[in-house]
Design brief:
This protein is α/β, with parallel strands linked by helices and about 475 residues long. The chain has two domains: about 325 residues, 3-Layer(aba) Sandwich (UDP-N-acetylmuramoyl-L-alanine:D-glutamate ligase); about 150 residues, Rossmann fold (3-Layer(aba) Sandwich). Helices cover about 35% and strands about 25% of the residues. The strands form four sheets. A ten-stranded mixed beta sheet has the order 1-16-15-14-13-12-11-2-5-7, with helices on both faces. A six-stranded parallel beta sheet has the order 17-20-19-18-21-22, sandwiched between helices. Strands 4-3-9-10 form a four-stranded mixed beta sheet. The longest helix has 15 residues. The protein is elongated, with a radius of gyration of 28 Å.
């Protein structure tokens, strides 16, 4: 499976004021009771929460709609609510956020409510209030769906197996006839029920229920690709929690690693993913690009409490921070992902290495010249112990973290990675850069690692260094230091 990073400048969303997404599915109201806990009940060994305030948030398909509106797109939501206070609270909250609701209101059925009791930031209890549906709303739902379909750029079917999407096949057929993309967030119906969809987003548990377990990423891809063909689905986006997202079509597959954040609450992360996928599809984005943006959005929402949303400016800020293609200091695994993505975009990757103990004008000129040979430049830096082995006691002058930080600040440098070995050969074996570059009076065949690069068809280049400009000369001018080696 090809790895793809989720931080490309083409992930910035344009204005969404003309984007309209139609969401259909099971809606619910999430209530939160917040209060202090100061004692244990005398009636049972449970904490007593002194409820200080109550909060309501849209849940289920309603949270998907809220996320879409928060991103700046227009959203219409179709679902079923009861003729009760919870249903009215849900509608009012959504209207205040700019979501248009077209609910089927049931007289003899209560709105689904999930109540969570929290104290000091911790969830102590969750209580669900829900009853089976007592009446078929298929015709009423379809009437509402057809009324809004023609103006939609994409449709989300948000299925929580609570009865609203009893016949998803009918809605998918109408979408296909109208030429509208349909994104499905399934539960535990057979995935064949969503045949013909543009994109289906199961999580690991839902995928295992559909195809059984797998022992490797390759087996997951094989099983998912078979589903694409059998169910005529454009792509499956399999969310894998903290690991990342697998994007599989009939012809290709990619893995988008998760963005590393401190997770506070995973509630609603799948809703955010579905919302972003639908917005991206409305813009005509391909599955991989849509999944990359959704991956970033979900990484933001899991840092928040409860069912939460991601705003357009908030998402744009994080994408902008990463829009240099994850430029900067990386470990080896992160760099492997970044290089794989760059190569998938057809970018030429250049590699150089050194101690870079005191960065000087010669280094800067040399790195600019190296960067001009491709679209991406990797600078591999000897760690402190290897510098000492190579240069002698007293070196390095600057510790690894400082050397990496200075290098990563150069416009010419994309990625900086440390290596502990005396040579960069293990890195070259793993990364297979298109060009290996060194500066100095070498023949290309004398460059360390040249035989590795030429063996797989890469290029080796030797660039000139600025005369009378070296770390050694700088140190000589600063005063003699014992144990210095030449650079």
């Amino acid at each position: 499976m090809t790895s793809a990073t989720s931080s490309s400048p083409d992930l910035l969303l344009p204005s969404l004021k003309d984007v309209h997404v139609l969401v259909v599915g099971d809606v619910m109201l999430d209530r939160y009771w917040h209060g202090d806990t100061r004692r244990i009940s005398q009636e049972a060994p449970v904490p007593v929460v002194n409820v200080a305030h109550e909060e309501v948030r849209p849940g289920g398909a309603a949270n998907v709609a809220l996320n879409i509106a928060s991103l700046g797109a227009r959203c219409t939501l179709i679902g079923r609510v009861g003729d009760d206070e919870a249903g009215r609270d849900l509608a009012d909250t959504l209207h205040a956020a700019g979501v248009v609701t077209d609910f089927v209101v049931a007289d003899d059925w209560p709105t689904v409510v999930k109540l969570r009791v929290l104290s000091q930031g911790q969830q102590l209890l969750r209580t669900d209030f829900e009853q089976p549906h007592t009446a078929d709303i298929g015709d009423a739902l379809l009437d509402r769906f057809e009324a809004h379909l023609s103006s939609a750029g994409a449709v989300v079917l948000q299925d929580y197996d609570k009865g609203v999407l009893a016949d998803p096949e009918v809605l998918i057929a109408r979408c296909r006839a109208a030429g509208v993309d349909v994104v499905v967030d399934p539960k535990f119906k057979p995935l064949s029920r969503y045949a013909g969809s543009t994109l289906v987003k199961p999580n690991v548990v839902e995928m295992q229920a559909a195809v059984g377990s797998w022992s490797s990423s390759e087996e997951l891809v094989e099983k998912t690709r078979a589903l694409c063909v059998a169910n005529d689905v454009g792509a499956y986006v399999v969310t894998q929690g903290g690991a990342g997202v697998s994007v599989v079509t009939a012809d290709e597959d990619h893995f988008v690693p998760a963005r590393q954040v401190e997770v506070f609450d995973v509630t609603g992360a799948g809703d955010t993913t579905a919302a972003v996928l639908a917005v991206a599809r409305s813009l005509g984005w391909p599955p991989l690009r849509a999944a990359q943006l959704a991956n970033i959005a979900s990484s933001i929402v899991v840092t928040k409490s409860g069912t939460a949303t991601v705003s357009g400016p908030e998402l744009a800020m994080v994408v902008s921070q990463q829009s240099r293609g994850d430029r900067g200091v990386m470990d080896r695994d992160q760099l492997l992902h970044a290089v794989a993505y760059a190569r998938a975009q057809g970018e030429r990757v250049v590699f150089t290495n050194g101690c870079f103990d005191i960065l000087h004008a010669g280094h800067v000129s040399y790195l600019e010249e190296a960067r001009a040979l491709g679209e991406r430049l990797i600078v591999a830096v000897n760690d402190d112990q290897s510098v000492t082995r190579l240069k002698g006691l007293g070196r390095p002058i600057n510790e690894l973290e400082r050397r990496q930080r200075v290098l990563s600040g150069l416009e010419s440098v994309d990625w900086v990675v440390a290596f502990t070995e005396d040579t960069p050969e293990p890195l070259l074996e793993a990364l297979h850069p298109d060009v290996l570059v060194k500066g100095g009076d070498y023949a290309p065949s004398e460059v360390v690692g040249a035989e590795i690069v030429t063996a797989y068809g890469g290029e080796v280049r030797v660039l000139s260094l600025v005369e009378d400009c070296s770390t050694t000369k700088i140190l000589e001018k600063a005063g003699p230091l014992q144990g210095q080696g030449a650079e």
